Amino acid sequence: MEVEEGEWSKLSIYKAARSIKKRDNSLYNALRSIYQDSVFVSEISQLWPQVPLLANLRCGLWYSSNFHSTCYFKSTDGHTNNCSFSTSRLNLHVAHLAAQKGGCMIVDSTRRGKRFPDSMSKTIPIWTCVLNRAISQFRTDSNIHENDAALPQEDCNGCGEVARDWDCSLHLPLWVPQTEKASIEEHLEEWTEQLKASGADIASLAVTLKKPLRPLWISQKTVIWLNEVPHHDSWDFTPVILVSASSSSNGVSQHNRTTSEFSWNYIPGAGDDEESWSRGLTPPLFWNHVYDLINSGPEICNQKVADIVEKSRVRRAYRGENAPQIRVKSLSRQEPSLASDVSNIEIEANANESSEDFEVSWLGSTNLAVGASQFVKDVADVDCILNCDSESISVSLPSADTYLHLPMVSSKFDRFSLLNNLSKAVSFAKFNLCQGKRLLVCCSNGEDISVCVCLAILMSLFDEKGTFDGGDSFDTTHVTKWDLRRWLVFVCKFATNARPSRGNLRQVFNFLIGGKCILQPQEDDGSDE
């Protein structure tokens, strides 16, 4: 927002500061900062090219176009004097991947003027320690009770020796105070027992993980001697390399004379809180147009992004996908407007404009799947669809009673949206699953609302072994929060991108403990109920 010189006297100090901050945190500055930090991420990943690169959602996803997969470690689980181990976000796929590849590399960033976010300083170190402790205890128990052990006999040989040498200590960075480390260590046994009680598959991880997990920290201030970079297999542990993408310096003006004529302001952790600045741009769209955007300059960057977002939206709509128009906050005092006023956009038939990778996750042998609504038409072997997105979708199904649209929104917008619709969702699932049909539950991203609906269906219609019983076991079960956590671990085993919010999970739990009259038949049986 530009302010004429004569107007400064009319502005309060607060409004002047807001104006300067808005100018410094412009869209171009954010994208240019992300691009510069991505160069650092690329350089680090090339030091260990065999180690898979993972993005810690959502901020980390902006810093490379070559991620192997994603993970979800929250900084709130590592906040000072409030550290915790989350059984809702076990990220076991990360441990399995590290076991298979000999390590992994996780990218994240922070705006807070410090080198590492709390997710890297404490959340992930706690996670590695708790997993190591659970694996060690499992291997010790397997060696003591060899006849009942889940490990094959050939894998059990030497388990006791491995367990004794297995590093179960808590490894934290030097900047975490010893008092806080001692406080965390007091809870490690409790968290280990919670992990074991959650139903997580520790047995398979104990077989594949040959060396204990251990975090390593790398930032832009880390000194690395290129001629002395060790091979990741040479360590006596499985490295979880934590790369903080951004510089801890703030407000540094940058100017690249060789590749750009534009001055710009560096924003640490620019990828964070994307809703406030991205104007509908996503990481895949950014990387498909990165050089065009970086070279556009700050004056026309906003319009470039608007055109890209609108063109992508029209292309998705042309393919029959859900493609709502994006509204953004105007930088002027005018009313909010659509992301672009482009009225005539040429649709390229073979364009490689991509959104996110297509993925629908089948939940074991339950005949239940979870996924994103925009990819529904690409899914094979689906007999019925429960759409929880706010928009209806076009589907090709044999009959009308095999598709149900129940619009739901996150608890941030409506605290009772799921709770008010779960009864119909479970009844629809029961009607179709009892006929042996395969059901897909979808929402806008396949990560939150649809996962919560699947949890309600699984806990209402399946027994503890994951066998469909139409609700017989549910009628005689007292549901606890631990039951919900165990089923969430089951879902996350197959849907590794699941990220249900606490507010939505609370609605599922309230629904499950709110009564048993939820399993009415889908069809009209002539009764008044």
Fold and architecture overview:
Helix content is 37%, strand content 10%. The chain is of the alpha/beta class and 529 residues long. It has a 5-stranded parallel β-sheet, sandwiched between helices. A 5-stranded mixed β-sheet has the order 10-11-14-12-13, with helices on one face. A hairpin with a 7-residue loop joins strand 6 and strand 7.
* Order of the strands making up the biggest sheet: 2-1-3-5-4
Structural class: alpha/beta
How big is the Rg? Answer: 25 Å
**Poorly predicted residue ranges:** 144-163, 255-259, 329-358, 516-529
Helix content: 25-40%
Give the strand tally. Answer: 14
What is the number of helical segments per DSSP (H or I, 4+ residues)?
Answer: 17
The separation of the N and C termini measures 60 Å
Shape: globular
Q: Assess the beta-strand content as a share of residues.
A: 5-15%
Provide mean pLDDT, rounded.
82
Largest sheet: 5 strands, parallel
Primary descriptors:
Rit1, five-stranded parallel β-sheet, Initiator tRNA phosphoribosyl transferase family protein, globular, 529 residues, Prot-tyrosine_phosphatase-like, Rit1_DUSP-like, 17 helices, tRNA adenosine(64)-2'-O-ribosylphosphate transferase activity, five-stranded mixed β-sheet, 37% helix, alpha/beta
